[in-house]
Amino acid sequence: MPLMKYVFKPGINKEGTNYSNEGGWFDADKVRFRKGKPERIGGWTKFSENGFIGTARKIHPYRAASGDTYIGLGTHQKLYNLTGNVFYDITPIRATTTNGIVFSATNGSSTLTVTDDAHGALTGDFVTISGAVTLGGLITADVLNQEYQIETVTSEDTYTIIAKDTSGDEVTANSSDSGNGGSGVDGAYQINTGLDVYVRGTGWGVNTWGAGTFGSAGDLTSTNQLRLWSIDNFGDDIIAAPRADQIYFWDKSSGTGDRATLLSAESGASDVPTKVLQIMMSDVDKHVIAFGCNPIGSSELDPLLVRFSDTESAVDWTPTATNQAGGVQLSTGSIIIGALRTRQEILIWTDAGIVSMRFVGEPFIFSFTEVAEGPSLISPNAAVSANNRVYFMDRDGFHVYSGSTQRLPCTVLDYVLSDLNQDQAFKVFAAANEGVNEIMFFYPSGTNKEIDKYVLYNYLEGTWSIGTTTDNFVRTAWDEASVYENPLASSKNDSTNTNYIYRHEVGHGDGADNFTAFIESSDFDLNPDGEKFTFISRLIPDVEFRDQQTTSDTVTFTIKGRDYPLQDLSTLQTINVTPQSTFANTRARSRQAAVRISSEASDYGWRLGDIRLDIRPDGKR
Questions:
Q1: pTM given for the model
Q2: How many CA atoms lie within 13 A of 380 on its CB side?
Q3: Averaged over 125-151, what is the pLDDT?
Q4: Domain boundaries, the chain
Q5: Which CATH architecture has domain 3-39+516-617?
Q6: Could you give the CA distance from residue 132 to residue 329 in angstroms, rounded to a whole number?
């Protein structure tokens, strides 16, 4: 028989069976579709060799008036400012103790017991100790006077730390360590750390979707739910708030070494919200907006209240006849899930629909209009703006907003939703990669508590792809190249808790990390309706190699086969294709086949064309 060309439909389709999607692609990892053809995604490399601790779920790059660039980054343990190539710890201080700390050590142990009346700390919090003197032995002043993460809170007045030297190595006390550290020991306690997992029964998700007291304000605190930061810049400065906590302010003019402080403690502060679900700067008129916050005169969080400061003021929140501060309580739903600034409006998702917030000037300042009833957000970070539209994920699928809301047809919808870990759905986040016309949704699957998969949508071509976060591709936050040339994303390493920001789409060389990429077709009949066995004697590949470094760059073609749809696929032939390859002789026999194309190295990319097979009938059995 002559050569048979196999042209597969673009996009991954998992809405049917492998056999019913004949002529299409069924599985992939780290492969995108562009101009209808699959290709390996771009690589990534570290943006900074300096790391940070904790899981970052918010990255906010911005450019100051001087032209210098900064990145605000919030983790479940810290708040950082990246200036140049250095992460500066700007985590706010919650409380300080003066001359109030004493230590006790046990011979042969590195665990120190710290006594500080009503310290208010939680296990995992950070405290910086100063003014201590030696305990008399190996626990010297240098060991004591540094930042510590609290190992265990044993009572409201005591906790333990693990003694370490300035290099981070543990120090074991000896029999001479019988002192208490002196009478002038001070402690600076950073704000309580948040959770790195979502816990049902607190805050958002306390009851079923849309139930009466779902997300009731009384249950929302910053320490009993997943730590999600909202970060924006007020001019050259940073405003930041953990979900259901206070607003903090970092003053650039004070220097990189200074920590953020309470916005309500700034000079001239008036009625600044003390509990917010999310904060944001408006684009032109320069209001700071709080979504879900406490009313003036109350400390209780109202999950539907939107308040905004006076124009060009981060600290004046008291409405008067001579300023533009104010607030509106939304009438739809029971809690604000998230908000997103777009070109002409701010979209606010409640648990029951979408509200458009637009600046209209005096006397109302902002207008609030319900633009969609029903669609919501699966998590506060599950929406992103791209292509003059807003793409977002709800618990029932994917949507696009461009004045009205439409559901996106999705060829992997059931695969994603049936695999999604609903208990950790609050970690889902959307990412835009406009250089290649893509939206990505990262999510935790199965019983995994952290993000381990993604789904990718090309909004110009309407194609979908899927993948995993293997090969150092775990991502917990993303910025779509708003300031820098390449998209930025944060990593997560559970074993070391030292994480990094990565640049994406940097080609396939330049020190990019290795990763495995593959795409696999659905089954296709080699003979009409698969009646007869077919012998494959030759494969003619069509591959474009990119960023080619050597003539040994390799893409592997694997021919798989089975005789009946419910049989397992078996590997019939594996063929390594290089830039010099012309064809490959094969000895494969089957009724139906599938083709898998894969690569592992980092220094080259590839783009797949069409596949041709030399086949001939080979009997019915």
A1: 0.93
A2: 28
A3: 97
A4: 3-39+516-617, 93-190
A5: Sandwich (2.60)
A6: 50
